[in-house]
Structure formats: structure tokens, C-alpha cells
Amino acid sequence: MSPVVRAARRTFSSLHVPNYRLYFFGQVVSMSGTWIQSVAQMWLVYQLTGSGIALGLVTALQFTPVLVAGMWGGIVADRFDKRKILVITQAAAATLALILGLLTAFEAVELWMIYLLAFGLGCISVIEVPTRQSFVIEMVGEDQLSNAVGLNSTVFTSARVIGPALAGLLIAGVGIAWCFLINAFSFAAVIVSLVKMDPERLHRSAPVERSKGQLREGLRYVWNTPILRTSLLMMAIIGTIAFNFRILLPVMAEEEFGGGAGTYGALSALMGVGTVLGALFAASRAEPTRKTLIYSAIAYGVLIIIAGMAPTLRLELIALVPMGAAGLAFVATANSTLQLNADASMRGRVMALYSVVFLGSTPIGSPIVGWIGETFGVRAGFFISGFACLLASAYAIDVVRRERLVRAAEQKHESSDEFEAVTPDDVVPAGAGGSYPTSRFREVVRVALRR
After folding, report:
1. Residue 430 bridge partners (DSSP)
2. CA-based nearest residue to 450, from 414, 422, 403
3. Over the stretch 370-390, which tens digit does the pLDDT of each residue have?
4. DSSP secondary structure string, 150-200?
């Protein structure tokens, strides 16, 4: 078997799991529909208002519920059957898309309706996102988790490239209402895949019983588990600042390179290609490591800074490909690390926190990065985003260093305890007028042999 074939089999290995294979192809359809609606919704709002503030408000309304109430969604994911939750949330999201499509088709849509529907979708995401994230390990098990997370990221990033292109064709060809209607029907693919799964093949854990203080319990658990705390704090820093630098791309295209929509499209497309490559890299890894997490964050930060320094459009396009790959590799590695290191009874709440710092940080990070770009220049926005990644990486490296020092001190202490001298209170050894305890003798021999 050639190395290329082996690499391909390793990259797509989780597709051999029947339940995940159903889910994967359902997601391919549904995610494309989601991105079609996302672009169409922004275009519709702009047509109605011509206001950038209105566009920002729609985004804020959609992501703020995750920021405010995301942890409660994790509690729901831990307490109930995840597959059934996803069927309900997908049906609810499809209903909202259908309503928006019909309102648009009959020319009855108003701005406040879009605001209300965007907020409703955000409320559904509070429960849907942590449930979907923590359901992956139930489909494939721990051995295939990293691969499945990487493939999910591949679907997401591919849809992010394909969806907007389809949206543009649909808006120009048949009208904007069809974008929402197609998205509504695309949810059927995921719902069917969930219904057709074999429940006996799922790696389920026992649901958590209802009790008081489950939110505080989840937060305390994460804080007291170093690998989870470090990964989430890195995600919070990078997610708030670095991942929101993308809002500066249209400004970069126009102000620095004198381009227009075509230049912006090229920048977005090349970064999209990079994210697909990063997702495939993550899928090819056997398991996530903190080394991969830290190195990918460092690479992402350095490449953002390089992209901010690029003097020509050609160099900018070249820099965006590896930058997109490094960013996606970091996200996928963080996701797998959290799921594999979280207790099954806490996984929903842990992934809810991941959703909060990844999605919920958008309403906070986007205005900050936008203000930096407007006040200090678009390149300054790139530089600060890159330095945020390096800061998060430095924090993680320091945590690893301190953990190693603690382990070394503990090992030294254990070694000194094993070989401590015989004290006056010990029984005098045989041959000196006494007898040496058999248990003590066996322990000394065992330690000596081990050494």
C-alpha cells in the first residue's frame, strides 16, 4: 500500500463508522444551506437598510444568546439524549428559515422580523452547538474522535467556500427568498441521518441526573482540570481577538491594495482553501497533543503578523493559505483536546464553554478589532491579532513548564521517601541482636530491583 493511500485512509478513517457516515453527509448538505442563508440574510438586511450598524446588530443578536446562556445549553446536553435533542433543534432551525423564506417571498419581511428570527436562531444554538459538539464522541468513540472533529471542520470550511458562491448565484438567478427556503429544506438531510442511526452502535454515557449547582459544578471542574483550563483560556484569547480579524479583510482589500469586491473575494477564498487544508491535517493526526495545540497557535499568530506586513496583494494571498490552515488546526486540536480530557458526565458543559469562548466572543471581539483597525489602521489590527495568539501560546508554555517542575519535585520527594534511612525506632536488623521486618525487607528489595 502506497504512503498516499495510507494517508488517505487515515484521514477519512472515521467514515468507516456507519452512524458517523450518515451524519457526515447530512452535515455536508445542511452546512452549505446554513452558509447560503447567512450570506442572503446579510444581503437582505443591507437592501432594507443600507446600514452597516444594522448588519452588526443582526450578527450580535444571533451570537449573544450563546455568550450569555451557553453554559445552560451544556447542562441540557449532559442531562438528555443528544440525538433526540439534535432532531428537535434542527427542526426548530428549519422552521425559522422557512418563516423567513416565506416572509421574503411574499414581500412582507421587515427589519424587526429579521432581528427576531436571528435572535431565535441564537437561542436554538445555545442548546444545539454544545450538544452537536459532544455528540461526535458518542458516534465514533475516543479512538476516532480527532479524525471526526477534523472531518467536521473540513465540512464546515468547505461549506463556507461553497455556500456563499451558491448564494450569489441564487440571489442573481431566482431571488433571495429561495436561499432561505433551500436552507430550510437542507435541515432534512441532518434530521434523516439522525433518525436512521443505529442507537445500539452509539458510545453513550449515562445521562446526568438533575441537581442543584450543576452550572457551578461545571465551571469548577474546568478550572480544577489544568488541560481543560489552559485550552479554554487559549481559545478565549484567540477566539475573541484573532478569529475576528477577518472583518478587516474587506478594508485590507480596498485601502491597502486598491481593490474591490473581486479582491476581497480572492482573499476570502484563499483563506478558505487554507482552512480546508488545516482541517485535513487535523483529521490525519492520531490524537491531539498540547504540543500541536501550542505550535499551531504560534504558527497562526506569526502568519497573521506576516499577512499584516505583506506589501503586495500576491504576497498577501500566499500568506493567507498557511494562516488559514494554522488557525483551523488550532481550533480542531482544541476541540478534540477538550472532549478527550473531559469526563463523560461533564462533556456537554465543557463543550458549552468552548462554544461560549469560540462563538459567543464574536459580539465582543468584532467591535474591538474593528475599532483597532479604524483607529490605528488595518495593519495594526492584524498585528494585535497575531500578538494575541503569541500571548496565549506563551501562557500555555508557562503552564506546561510549571507542571513539569511540580512533577519533578514530586518524583524527587517520592524517591527520598523510598530510600529513607533506618531510624532508631526501626527494628534492629538481624545479626545485630534483633530481627528485620519481612515486609520492610521485601519493600527494599522491590525498590532496588525497580531502580
Report:
1. 434
2. 414
3. 788 878 888 888 999 999 999
4. HHHHHHHHHHHHHHHHHHHHHHHHT-THHHHHHHHHHHHHHHHHHHHS-GG
H helix intervals, 204-260: 214-223, 226-240, 249-251
**DSSP 3-state assignment of 106?**
coil
DSSP secondary structure, 19-84, as one string: HHHHHHHHHHHHHHHHHHHHHHHHHHHHHHH--HHHHHHHHHHHHHHHHHHHHHHHHHHHHS-HHH
The answer, yes or no, to whether residue 351 has pLDDT greater than 90, is no
* Domain over 214-418 is classified CATH 1.10.10.10: no
CA distance 293 to 326: 10
CA atoms within 13 A on the CB side of 432: 5
Q: For the segment 69-81, what is each residue's pLDDT rounded down to a tens digit?
A: 888 888 888 888 8
- Out of 1.20.1250.20, 2.60.120.200, 3.40.605.10, 3.30.565.10, select the CATH number for domain 13-204: 1.20.1250.20
DSSP bridge pairs for 434: 430
Beta carbons within 10 angstroms of residue 27's beta carbon:
20
CB-based contact 58:118 (threshold 8 Å): yes
| CA gap 190, 188 in Å, rounded | 6
* Amino acid of residue 195: V
- CA quadruple 61, 67, 69, 70: dihedral positive or negative? positive
What torsion, rounded to 10 degrees, do the Cα atoms 97, 99, 105, 110 define?
Answer: -100
- Express each pLDDT in 81-127 by its tens digit: 899 999 999 999 999 999 999 999 998 999 999 999 999 999 999 99
Half-sphere exposure of residue 183: CA atoms within 13 angstroms, side-chain side: 33
Burial 292-331 (b: 16+ CB within 10 A, else e): bbbbbbbbbbbbbbbbbebeebeebbebbbbbbbbbbbbb
Q: What is the chain's Cα-based Rg?
A: 26
Domain spans of the chain, in order of start: 13-204, 214-418
Distance between CA atoms of residues 245 and 255, nearest Å: 15
